[in-house]
Amino acid sequence: MEKTVNQKAWFLVLPVLVLVAFSAIIPLMTVVNYSVQDSFGQNQFFWAGLVWFEDLLHSERMWDALGRQLFFSGAILAIEVPLGVFVALNMPKKGLWASVCLVLMSLPLLIPWNVVGTIWQVFARTDIGLLGYTLDSLGINYNYTQNAAHAWITIIVMDVWHWTSLVALLAYAGLQSIPNAYYQAARIDQASRWAVFRYIELPKMMGVLMIAILLRFMDSFMIYTEPFVVTGGGPGNATTLLSIDLVKMALGQFDLGNAAAFSIMYFLVILAISWVFYTVMVNLDKRDTK
Amino acid sequence: MAWMAWTLPTALFFVVIASLLVVFTILAIKFPETPRRGVLGIETTRGDRLFITLLGSAFINLAWMGVIGPELQPYALIVCLVYAAAVFRFV
Predict the structure, then answer these.
(1) Which of A83-92, A246-255, B32-41 has the highest mean pLDDT?
(2) Where do runs of H (alpha helix) occur along chain A?
(3) Phi, psi (5° rounding) for residue A244?
(4) Most B-contacting residue of A2, A3, A7 (CB-CB within 10 A), to test interface
(5) pLDDT value, residue A8
C-alpha cells in the first residue's frame, strides 16, 4: 500500500509565508482592489466594477503586446536551449580549462540588467558602437532605432548573449552528474555520438533542462529593463513587450485600474504556464526515481 | 488599511479564497490522503485539484467576459462550479 502524505509538514513553511505575504501577497491583493476601481490620485477611489477587464479583453494593444511577448519568449527559448546544450557538450570536463570556461560563462550572468541594456545600446550604435559600425561598413543598412526587424534581432541577440550561459551551466551540471559507467556501456555497444546524446545525455539532463527552460521562460516573460534601455519599446510599438506596456499604462498614463487588470491577467498567464512546467518537472523526477 | 483601497466585493473574494485554503488545510490534516492519478496523467492531491480549479475558474471568467459579455457574468460561476466538480471527480 502506498503511504499517505503527511500534510502537517506544511506548517514548517509558515515563516516563509509571512515574508511572502509582505513582499507579494498583500501588494497583489492591493492590485486586485485597484482593478475594480478608478482613481484620479490622492488615494481616492471610485467603484468601476469589471470595466477594466472588459476594456482589456477587447484592447488590441494588450493582445499585440501579449503576442510580441510570446514571440520573444519562444524565440529566445528556441535559441538558448539548444545553444546552451551544445556549449555544455563541448566544454572541457575537468582541468584548468573547465574552470576557465565556467568563469567565462558566468560573467554575463553577473552583469546587472540595465548595464547589459546600456552595453548593447552603445554596441549597436552605427556611429560609435563596434557592432553597428562594423555592420554599417559591410554595407548593411543596420539601424535598430528605426527598423523594427533590426530592433528585434538586437534584443534577441542581447538576451541570448546574457542568458545562454545559464542554460549551458545548468546543462553542464547535468552532464557532470552522469556516471562514467553509462559511457563505458555505450562504448562497448559501439553507440554513435548521436545515440549517446539521445539515449544517455539528454534523458539525464532532462531535469535540469526543465529547470533551465522554466527559469528562462519566466525571466523572459517578465523582461523589462534590457529592451527598455535598448529600444524603449520602439520603433513605434514594435518591441513594446508586456511589462513595458504595463509600466507605460501604470506610471506613464497613471491608469491604475487598467494597469491593475492588466497585471492580474499577466500574473494569471505566468502562473498557468509555470504550473505546467512545474508539473512536468515534478513528474519527470518521479519517473526517474521509480 | 486605507492605502490598500479595499472594497466589499474584493474583500469577500479574498475571504472566500482564504476560507477555502483553511478548509482544505484542515481536511488535509484530518483526513490524510493518497495522491491519485486522473485523466491528466499526473498525481494530484485535493490541494492540487483546488489550485487547478481556482486557476481554471479565473480563465473561465475571463473567457466568458470576452466571448459572452459582462452582463451575464454571474452565470460564469455556474460553469466554474461544473468545472470544479469535473476537476475533483476526474483529475
Answers:
(1) A83-92
(2) 14-20, 26-35, 51-57, 60-90, 96-110, 113-123, 130-137, 148-176, 180-188, 193-196, 202-221, 225-230, 242-247, 256-289
(3) -65, -45
(4) A7
(5) 75
Asked if B4 lies within 8 A of A29 by C-beta distance, the reply is yes
What's the pLDDT score for residue A171? 93
pTM of the model: 0.85
- pLDDT above 90 (res A233): no
ipTM: 0.90
Distance from CA of A43 to the nearest CA of B (A): 7
CATH architecture designation of domain A59-254: Orthogonal Bundle (1.10)
Cell reading at A188:
562497448
What integer is the mean pLDDT of A22-40?
A: 90
Please state, rounded to an integer, the average pLDDT across all residues of chain A.
89
Domain boundaries, chain A: 59-254
Interface mutation vs chain A, best among B3, B6, B7, B39, most A CBs within 10 Å: B7
Q: Is the pLDDT of residue A255 over 90?
A: no
Residues of A in contact with B65 (CB under 8 A): 50, 53-54, 57
Domains of chain B, by residue range, sit at 1-32, 35-91
Whether A262 contacts chain B with CB within 8 A: no
